[in-house]
């Protein structure tokens, strides 16, 4: 099932929340900063052992002080003229979902990856997020997974609502 939540991803009580991280995986601003603040210092300590993360890839850690048992860290593309930005962004969702399957995760929340500091156009990013998730679910019909799109503001929420109903 796919749903949308307007609010803070760090308080969601689901198996995993996804972090829109940077390649160092050593924290930052935006949702990355919020997740690290609420998870506590042990999250950073575990992230230090991961050796970073390439754009489009995803790595998993415990959730520590979060309600979520896991954090899946993925690195979205920084919007530029490079033509493979769309596939890199799609890979963030696909690789995060593949990790959820591998770790028997049955509820996962995604922020609007790359649409903040990385300036990916919201409408295009929303379409990529929804189509990638729907395709993945179609290919894994036998795996129960609830997906929440966590929207931090009305603009993002309305965009997801518009394209989920499309
Ligand atoms: N809960 C849910 N969504 C949030 C939260 C939160 N607590 N805080 C921010 N967001 C939203 C933003 O409003 C935006 O819609 O997450 C989306 C992604 O924005 P960013 O966090 O800026 O992430 P991104 O655009 O992928 O840029 C990643 O920013 O924080 C740094 O270390 C991070 O370098 C990396 C870059």
From TrEMBL:
Residues 1-166 form the Macro domain. It comes from the Bacteria. InterPro entries: Macro_dom (IPR002589), Macro_dom-like (IPR043472). CDD domains: Macro_OAADPr_deacetylase (cd02908). It holds the Pfam family Macro. NCBIfam families: PRK00431.1-6. This is Macro domain-containing protein. It comes from Megamonas funiformis YIT 11815. The lineage of its organism: Bacteria, Bacillati, Bacillota, Negativicutes, Selenomonadales.
């Amino acid at each position: 099932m796919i749903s949308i939540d307007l609010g803070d991803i760090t308080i969601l009580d689901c198996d995993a929340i996804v972090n829109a991280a940077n390649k160092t995986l050593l924290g930052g601003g935006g949702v990355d900063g919020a997740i690290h603040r609420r998870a506590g210092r042990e999250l950073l300590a575990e992230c230090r052992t991961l050796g970073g993360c390439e754009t489009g890839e995803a790595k998993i850690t415990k959730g520590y002080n979060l309600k979520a048992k896991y954090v899946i860290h993925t690195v979205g593309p920084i919007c530029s003229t490079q033509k493979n930005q769309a596939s890199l962004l799609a890979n963030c969702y696909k690789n995060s979902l593949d990790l959820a399957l591998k770790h028997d995760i049955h509820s996962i929340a995604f922020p609007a990856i790359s649409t903040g500091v990385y300036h990916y156009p919201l409408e295009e990013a929303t379409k990529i997020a929804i189509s990638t998730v729907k395709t993945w679910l179609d290919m894994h019909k036998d795996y129960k997974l609830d997906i929440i799109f966590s929207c931090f503001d009305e603009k993002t929420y309305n965009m997801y609502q518009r394209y989920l109903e499309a």
